[in-house]
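Practice problem 4.
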């Protein structure tokens, strides 16, 4: 294992000598510098992944050193050392992407904790790089596989008579991907062995019914595009296997021409991209930890700083109203920090669903009981519209209720924010629809603009300003998808929103 290294910067040489001892004991190779100029020179020569620097130094101070290091290598983790009177500078350094700050006199345990956090971030970023490279490799392998299959099948079709039926069928059957041929009516003409084992043998059936469980051709279908212009197309899509499990695939089309040169069929070759999607999930998790979390926390620090400033000025002037205002700002920010931490813990916890049979009506009523009192306390009419004929479904009640409560609380906030209407209503309805139970949450609140609709499920996107963490709907969608469900949204700015959640019923 390579030895870790860091650069220690302080204009007091005694501090450099004292701190170097425990740092070496922790396993670091320690480079030292007495000023910012020398530190920058050593950094450029040695490229240590961690820099620990004092803020107040003659000449180039710690803030300037931080800015210059980050310009040259944004991945470097920089820990700031500050005196008790330099808190504003410490907060400024966090805004400039410092990893952490510690105060003088320096406690070795506190320093080690900060270094451990820096090491963890470095390890996460290295893992992120590995995942990215692996993702690219897997994707290239899948594309090469399809290109090879396309080449072989084109050659086989061209030499079909010379090959003989048995040899052609053997080649068609044994290629390591899902292959099916459809005609101009989207009917399956032939399929290979791997396709039959996963999706069944359904000659004459419509491909969109067998593979997508739809009653009409897919919008933007690549088969249709190939039939129109004779070109090959590729697309990522989700197919449903014999057990109704979704399979994410990369699909590639090849035109098949008859004796007259007209395109009368299309061959589709698809390869499973599950490994790639798993890597994408890992990248999302790591991206959350490395980028989005720091962005969210910086905003909270700014809010907390503002509240403390108002509080301090209130005490200095003996202004009770200003003290109250500062206290409310601090209290609000602390509540946001608490919610952020709980949301992060909920998201980061990799836990399996604990499904159990649940009475749908009882479940929906329990969800309503959580949110209805809050809505009614704000003067919002809360309407329950439940189909009484509903039976049971198998879900993780704790997880799914968290998702629905999140959506309902957003509806309450949307109504509170809307000052243009005299009265507001939230309608929470539950009904059965074919093989799904459908939860609908409709409000006549503020509604969403185009940007909000496009980004509402993104990490740390929030339309609530200081009140939101930007994790609620992201987590809600994740839970719904883990149940095999889907979530759709309709919203018009100024009129309101309607969320619909479909959860599969047991067979």
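Answer key:
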């Amino acid at each position: 294992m390579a030895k870790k290294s860091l650069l220690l910067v302080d204009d007091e040489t005694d501090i450099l000598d004292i701190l170097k001892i425990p740092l070496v004991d922790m396993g670091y190779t320690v480079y030292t510098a007495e000023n910012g100029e020398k530190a920058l020179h050593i950094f450029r020569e040695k490229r240590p992944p961690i820099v620990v620097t004092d803020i107040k130094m003659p000449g180039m101070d710690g803030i300037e050193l931080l800015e210059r290091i980050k310009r040259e290598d944004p991945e470097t983790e920089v820990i700031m050392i500050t005196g008790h009177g330099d808190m504003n500078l410490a907060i400024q350094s966090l805004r400039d992407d410092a990893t952490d700050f510690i105060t003088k006199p320096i406690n070795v345990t506190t320093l080690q904790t900060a270094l451990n956090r820096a090491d963890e971030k470095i390890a996460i970023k290295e893992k992120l790089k590995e995942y990215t490279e692996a993702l690219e490799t897997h994707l290239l392998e899948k594309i090469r596989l399809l290109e090879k299959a396309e080449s072989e099948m084109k050659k086989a079709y061209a030499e079909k008579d010379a090959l003989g039926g048995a040899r052609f069928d053997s080649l068609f059957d044994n290629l390591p991907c899902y292959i099916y041929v459809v005609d101009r009516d989207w009917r399956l003409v032939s399929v290979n062995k791997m396709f039959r084992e996963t999706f069944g043998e359904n000659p004459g059936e419509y491909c969109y019914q067998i593979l997508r469980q739809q009653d009409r051709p897919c919008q933007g279908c690549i088969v249709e595009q190939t039939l129109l212009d004779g070109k090959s197309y590729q697309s990522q899509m989700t197919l449903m296997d014999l057990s109704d499990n979704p399979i994410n695939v990369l699909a590639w089309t090849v035109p098949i021409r008859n004796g007259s040169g007209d395109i009368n069929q299309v061959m589709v070759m698809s390869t499973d991209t599950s490994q790639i999607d798993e890597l994408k999930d890992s990248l999302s998790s790591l991206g959350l930890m490395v980028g989005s979390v720091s962005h969210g926390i910086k905003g909270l620090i700014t809010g907390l700083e503002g509240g403390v400033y108002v509080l301090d000025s209130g005490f200095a002037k003996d202004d009770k109203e200003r003290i109250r205002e500062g206290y409310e700002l601090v209290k609000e920010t602390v509540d946001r920090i608490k919610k952020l931490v709980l949301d992060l813990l909920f998201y980061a916890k990799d836990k399996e669903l604990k499904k159990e049979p649940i009475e749908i009506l009882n479940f929906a009523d329990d969800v309503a009981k959580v949110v209805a009192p809050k809505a009614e306390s704000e003067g919002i009419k809360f309407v329950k519209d439940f189909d009484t004929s509903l039976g049971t479904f198998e879900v993780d009640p704790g997880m799914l209720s968290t998702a629905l409560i999140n959506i309902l609380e957003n509806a309450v906030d949307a109504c509170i924010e809307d000052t243009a209407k005299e009265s507001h209503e939230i309608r929470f309805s539950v009904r059965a629809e074919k093989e799904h139970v459908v939860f609908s949450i409709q409000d006549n609140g503020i509604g969403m603009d185009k940007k909000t609709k496009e980004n509402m499920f993104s990490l740390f996107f929030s339309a609530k300003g200081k009140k939101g963490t930007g994790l609620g709907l992201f987590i809600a969608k994740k839970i719904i998808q883990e149940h095999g469900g889907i979530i759709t949204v309709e919203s018009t700015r100024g009129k309101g929103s309607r969320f619909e959640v479909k959860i599969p019923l047991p067979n």
